[in-house]
Amino acid sequence: MKRRFAGSVLAERLARGSGKQVLLVDRRAHIGGNAYDHYDNAGILVHQYGPHIFHTNSKDIFDYLSHFTEWRQYQHKVLASVDGQLVPIPINLDTINKLYGLNLTSFQVEEFLASRAEKREHIRTSEDVVISKVGKELYEKFFRGYTRKQWGLDPSELDAQVTARVPTRTNRDDRYFSDTYQAMPKFGFTRMFASILDHPNIKVLLNTDYREVKEMIPYRQIIYTGPVDEFFDYRFGKLPYRCLEFKHETHNVPIFQPVAVVNYPNDCAFTRVTEFKHLTGQEHPKTSIVYEFPQAEGDPYYPIPRAENAEIYKKYQALAEATQGVRFVGRLATYRYYNMDQVVAQALTVFSQIAGLDRSNATDLKYEPGLTPLTISMSLNGNGNGNGHRNGNGHGHKGIRGRRRRGPLIPS
Ligand code: UDP
User: Fold this and answer.
1) Is 113 in the same domain as 157?
2) Kind and range of the H or E element at 231?
3) Domain check: are 228 and 336 in the same one?
4) Which of 86, 89, 166, 178 for a ligand 1 pocket mutation test, highest count of atoms within 8 Å of Cβ?
5) pLDDT given for residue 335 in this prediction
6) What is the pLDDT of residue 71?
7) What is the pLDDT of residue 365?
8) From 139, 163, 292, mutation site for ligand 1 pocket: most ligand atoms within 8 A of C-beta
9) How many A from CA of 274 to the centre of ligand 1?
10) Tens digits of per-residue pLDDT, 223-264?
11) What pTM was estimated for this model as a whole?
């Protein structure tokens, strides 16, 4: 296994859901991948790799994660710094009124936008998405500069899905997401991951590239969540990923900015500034923030959605599908610009395939805190379980279809 949301969810499902022995290997010094959060030197909970906000429309996914954390209800708000003002993004009624000093109603703002929107026959690129909804001027104020910074490409060079993530509204709704479930893990993401991985069948090996230990450890299957091109030694060339650098700061004031995130579409080298206390609800006399500086090189964060990259990925995908004993899961391994909930869904689908379950039963096994530790110590990756009656969850029988072997655990 390798890092990130996908790896942790699969580790949990394979261990608790079908009694497999799992070794999770990560190059980094911590669990949780990019969603890792921790208390900084000032004692403020910060997200090391930029803001992570959980949101989903899937009750199934929300319920599944709720086994591992309590939640803090949180509606994410973002402002954009445009023409010397902070205005709501997604663009809404208040954005237009504030920006142009108007007092339009919802109906009037709809007309206002319609009069500026430029009809596009086909919505292919990220430029088409925005210009066809709000016209060139607002596109340039809010999207063009931000996107060029974030991706190192013009919106016209990116698939529609990138800017289509951000809606346009004519009402006063100023939430960044409109999903049914929006929340932050009450004690942070790292605590949630620790709980997900808290199972006697799961061992975690940090500060380790899986290739360093691959030959030393017998295993049945690898779940790989790193960049797919790296796995195949860049056989078909490098798949472009966008990278980020972070600058963390603590300020000696209780509040730095009015909302959790402020976007800077047209000025500054960074794209956005996040103030964590808005996300976490923590009270503290100081406050910590992070600036995000997009980069071409470094640790990969985003696949870059555009046709020519999809072409390269297709080759890797075919190779991945033909590679026995390895499953590729997550943003980097499947080259998809997925949100956290989509990654969890993908991981659950892969789990259901491995376990021979219907997808609707993938989260079926109830979580039971306070598990009895295994009496046999064994930390190798999935050998079809074999730990029989002491399977570590005490109720792992549902839907497993005779995969369980009885008797002591035998290294494969
Ligand atoms: N975007 C933009 N201006 C904004 C917000 C978003 O141009 O103020 C574009 C940009 O291309 C960005 C994409 O919309 O990469 C998706 O935004 P989102 O906030 O979902 O990005 P993420 O949080 O995944 O980095």
Assistant:
1) yes
2) helix 228-231
3) yes
4) 166
5) 98
6) 98
7) 63
8) 163
9) 14
10) 999 999 999 999 999 999 999 999 999 999 999 999 999 999
11) 0.88
The owner of tokens 């942790």 is 8
- Residue 185 Cα to ligand 1 midpoint, Å, equals 23
Could you identify the residue written with the tokens 């979580």? 367
C-beta 34 within 6 A of ligand 1: no
Q: Looking at residue 364, what is its pLDDT?
A: 78
Residue 61 CB neighbour total at 10 angstroms: 21
Residues 220 and 325 grouped into a single domain: yes
Q: What is the pLDDT at residue 411?
A: 29
pLDDT at position 203 is: 97
For 392, the 3-state DSSP assignment is coil
Contacts by 97-104 with C-beta closer than 8 Å and gap 24+?
Answer: 99/141
Parts of the chain with a pLDDT under 70 = 1-4, 365-412
One-letter amino acid for residue 124 of the chain: R
Residue 57 resides in a domain: no
Q: What is the CATH number of the domain that holds 334?
A: 3.40.50.720
Residue 368: inside a domain = yes
Q: How many angstroms does the Cα of residue 184 sit away from the middle of ligand 1? A: 20
Q: Give the angle subtended at the CA of 219 by the CAs of 358 and 16, to the nearest 5°.
A: 40
| Number of domains observed in the structure of the chain | 2
Q: Are residues 312 and 407 in the same domain?
A: yes
Q: Are 286 and 251 in contact (CB under 8 A)?
A: yes
Domain span at residue 153 reads 78-165
Q: Do 352 and 192 meet the contact criterion of CB atoms below 8 Å apart?
A: no
Asked whether the beta carbons of 312 and 164 are under 8 A apart, the reply is: no
* Residue where a domain stops, chosen among 143, 165, 187: 165
